[in-house]
Amino acid sequence: TMRQEKAHKENRKHPRTSKRIQFKLKTHDSDIVAETTDLSCIGVCCQVNKPLPFMSHLMISFALADDEEGEGANQVECGGVVVRVEKDTIQVNHSVYNVAIFFHEIEESEKAKIAKFLARHGSY
What we know:
Helix content: 10-25%
Strand order of the largest sheet: 2-3-4-7-6-5
Shape: globular
């Protein structure tokens, strides 16, 4: 169908990785540890242990290891906005939230670091 073709094209336009990376989200009053489930140059889907307000602004920082040994980690920092929050129904015994964040403030240099990482760590 047209819709599937469009989705397929978008995937090619923005490579992404499902490699899991722990990173930090800073809200105006707290630091939250998150883990990526899906990362691209324009945003990240991640899991956190508390709900984040929809459309709230965050500062995001994560280290992308430059090679398999984890040497030469590239620190990426950018601003993001929460565009989706869903309680994870699989984790019954503790609260996990699936959150999608769009990078609304990101330097080209930071995007380049993510792109380099994605090129190395396989995309789908």
